[in-house]
Amino acid sequence: MNAATKLELLIGDSSLSTELKLIAEKVKSNQRISFDEGVLLYEKAELGYLGVLANYIREKRHGDKTYFNRNFHIEPTNLCIYDCKFCSYSVLIKEKSQGWEYTMEQMLDIVKNYDGQPVTEVHIVGGVLPQYDLKFYSELFTAIHKHRPDLHVKALTPVEYHYIFKKAKVDYATGMKLMKEAGLDSIPGGGAEIFAPEIREIIAKDKCTGEEWLQIHEEWHKLGMRSNATMLYGHIEKFEHRIDHLEQLRALQDKTGGFQTFIPLKFRNQDNQMSHVPEVSVIEDLRNYAISRIYLDNFDHIKAYWAMISRSTAQLSLNFGVDDIDGTLDDTTKIYSMAGAEEQHPAMSTQELVELIKNIGRHPVERDTLYNVITDYKDFEFPVEEKPKYYQLPVIN
């Protein structure tokens, strides 16, 4: 039974409440749901109902296609001037012995390790430190592009840019223009957390505000460039805070059209100052993906980070609005594992990713960062099992 038929049957279900039937009819007719309807979905909609709506939208946009890319991460440091309560990754500067700081040469060595390999993206994000300033990152981006012009540089969150630009005494517009000129290709979605000031004040009060996060993305979009967006969910926020967050993203997307992917990020409670807050269930994860797909009608893609939620949950998410499960990673990120994610050494070969997607009847497509198709794996057969090649990150004493 296809997604459209399932939606028709749902709408015709006499046991469905009038409110939920109206939302389903809006989805069928491609009408935008309201803030109150978004909250209602969180409060009253069952998982099966949400799955039908979200999968209808997903398949209308992308059919069975599920995207991934070949990427690796550089995390310059886990030392940070900020003290976010939910963070298991960073340590304060005064606890320097527990952290690492890569030099520019070490970061370039990580890039060079992938010479000759078909990766398309380097994802750079980490802690905030004074020495990683405007000059440092400008030189780093330029050096990466000089060494490997075809490698897409997706780097730094607005949290980092806010600090960098403030330190350099340049406004957001000037700063983003300088980053583009240095070789920055796109911005990841991190640092958004929850925009609501009353929640942000508790979990991440020191860093840029939600309004400033949005302003930096807007300036980047004005340059004709693309970025992603995230939301940290499943901690102390309420359902209306989640919808408020999605509403602000949707409003900026209406204005600029510069976002390409939304990534819900699950709060993990290992080794952080919010360890007393229980994690939400897999069912709530899937509900959140589905509602995000339904509400963000002007976003092309919804992504699930398999390294954060597990491979099996990532597979399930592909029936709840998700059409992208990120990339190969190659064990180059510690952000998820340090927070208690199931994947302690997150890496999958291309073959493993393709098989994970095919095993639930979806159509694997390797993309670049901007969703240009690199390889369609629908009918592809691997002649020899591709084994993942792990890169040993530099050790900082």
How is this structure best described in words?
The protein is of the alpha/beta class. The chain folds into 2 domains: 3-61, no CATH class; 66-376, Aldolase class I (TIM Barrel, Alpha-Beta Barrel). Helix content is 41%, strand content 14%. It is built from 15 helices and 13 strands. α12 links the parallel β9 and β10 (301-302). α1 runs antiparallel to α2 (18-28), α3 (35-44) runs antiparallel to α11 and α8 crosses α10 (210-222). The longest helix has 18 residues, at 239-256.
Lateral arrangement of strands in the main beta sheet: 11-1-12-13
Largest pleated sheet: 4 strands, mixed
- Helix fraction by DSSP (H/I, runs of at least 4): 40-55%
- CATH T-level fold name of the largest domain: TIM Barrel
Features:
4-stranded parallel β-sheet; 2 domains; single chain; 4-stranded mixed β-sheet; disordered C terminus; 15 helices; 397 residues; alpha/beta; TIM Barrel
